[in-house]
TrEMBL record:
Family: Belongs to the outer membrane factor (OMF) (TC 1.B.17) family.
Cited SUPFAM superfamilies: Outer membrane efflux proteins (OEP)
Subcellular localization(s) per the UniProt record: Cell membrane
MF terms in GO: efflux transmembrane transporter activity
Pfam families: OEP (PF02321)
Protein name: Efflux transporter outer membrane subunit
Amino acid sequence: MSARPHPASAGRLQPRPTLTTTLATLLIATLTGCTTLGPDFQPPTAQLPAAWPAQQSAAGAVDLLWWHSFGDPLLPSLIARATADNLDLQTATSRLEQARAARTSIAGAQQPELNATLDAARARNSQIGLLDPSGLNGTHPYTVGNAGLSASWELDLWGRVRRTVETADAQVEAAQEQRHAVLLAVAAETAHAYIQLRATQSLSALTQKNLDIARDSARLTALRRQEGVATELDVARAAAQVATIEARLPALAQREHQLISALGLLLAQPPQALSKELSKELTTSAGDASEAGDHALSTIPAGPQLTALGLPSELAQRRPDIRRASAVLHAATAGIGAAQADFYPRISLGASVGSQAMQLSELGSWDSRSFGIGPSISLPLFDRGRRAGTLALSAARQQEAALAYRKTVLTAWHEVDEAANAVRAQQQRQQGLTTATGQTRRALGYAQQQYQAGSVDFLNVLSAQDALLSTEAALTESRAAAALAQVDLYKALGGGWQEHGKLSP
């Protein structure tokens, strides 16, 4: 991939003009109109594959409002509130407003400047000094009043002001895209935290379900010990199993607390302000392990089996970081023209009209009138290399921006490829764990039946229960990992900021 600036490369610095060249250029520019120095920006080409690998995607356009495809009514609500109230987003919006205000200030140089003055002073001059303009020879104080209008306008013959405004426009665009990037990140982070929260709650429910099973087994073992069928070793093992499972719950509760706080921070809420809304009860039945496990898993949002990736060529238009990198390159390219124009004369037209009088009553009379009009030319002769250094710096910045654009596009390509591969791998892993969980549930049922019949010892029950707890936890984590990978894929594709990205100018 490559970022291709205008052929008038920033690396070829323009030589400092001689006086003869300057005067000739000034005459030509005056006769034929203004010119604009420096390379004109050409949008860079993002080199991306012609198509994504067929096994990684479904046909169709990217779902820009992807959070609706996860089948959870609360997730879109959380994302909508986050994109409305998030403090990082409000900061990005403020920076965009600052960029727009700066652009307005810079663009003012394209128009004439008009100022009005009005002053009055009481003064007395020296009797032995220079000529007293009041005519009083310093013998008496006098009052003098001034009123007037003055106007000035720089003739932007070389495009210095136009290039500066072009730079400001590109900086506004970069700030706009940075805000879009924050929107995209906020939506993805909200989905991440919510999916992890539901996975943690599911693990807590499954752990509680297995704890109920372990407690039932411990009570049964105690009864069998009283009947002389079980041993003290079986009783100790059952009690240890109960304590081991119980020890998992506090860490899960702590994790749930952290994730609710994280979501609250994303929504600019105080700690645990969302506890009531997000502490969803996952009612499970200890008597039916299969039904309980399936119910716990169903609380984890899951996206579509196949995600439409769209066309690779559209990635540069959807990804705000690529769009921002292009805007930064545009600003750096325009900066070269502004730096080159500094080598040429600055020509301004000025005019003033006013009134001056010794008596305020005479201010504004015909005899008190004054005026002035004429051009001013400022020609740089010697600055110890300051302008040359500024031009070299502008060229280097453009080269850096071009490299940054190339890296941004390449990073986006990698992120899409890796996220699509992660989705596929996690979905395959989930399928295998789903089968394994069903078999371990059957194995636990058989072990309990055989233990009650006295054909196997309690160690078989413990082994089957450990296996079920392990596979159910792995399946829960796998489903959450698959959903998180889909969120990462949508983020890599640049979907998610379009609905909330509009901002009135």
